[in-house]
Design brief:
The protein has 151 residues and is mainly α. Helices cover 88% and strands 0% of the residues. It has one domain.
């Protein structure tokens, strides 16, 4: 009977350790996927910013052509003011895109850390559960194991 109990105890301990290892592996895999997503989104954010800048630069060039087509000097106060306004809009729009990208990176970084923490917690839970099962099971199999010997 003792060998069946030992086998059961071994399976219980092994199962809990296995669950903990699997949870840790899943946490690391999720973290790796989130890191890939963060890299992709950083590239997309940079491309979006670049496209926005090109689009705005095209609009500024078009605006300059329209102003000069009307016979207004490009160094006139009105033309300079309009150029400054356009440059401010470009800067604001670009900063908005970059800020959104940075916020998303912060969010994904936190999600990655949380996935790793969940994996470590699963490993710790499995290990502690295995230790608890081993100690409890050992006392059930060998009831006198915890008793102090009288001298």
């Amino acid at each position: 009977m003792c060998s069946i109990e030992l086998i059961g105890l071994g399976l219980s301990v092994g199962g809990k350790i296995s669950q903990g290892v699997a949870a840790n592996k899943a946490g690391r895999q999720n973290a790796a996927l989130i890191a890939e997503q963060a890299a992709t989104e950083a590239q997309l954010s940079a491309i979006k910013d670049e496209r926005l800048r090109k689009q705005m630069a095209g609009q500024i060039a078009k605006q300059r052509l329209q102003i000069s087509g009307r016979g207004v000097s490009l160094d006139s106060p009105q033309a300079v003011y309009m150029g400054q306004q356009a440059a401010e809009e470009l800067s604001f729009a670009s900063q908005s895109v970059r800020s959104e990208g940075a916020a998303r990176q912060t969010e994904l970084s936190a999600a990655r850390r949380a996935a790793l923490a969940r994996g470590r917690l699963g490993l710790l839970t499995g290990t502690l559960g295995a230790a608890s099962s081993a100690l409890t099971g050992a006392l059930e199999i060998w009831p006198n194991l915890g008793a102090a010997e009288a001298t």
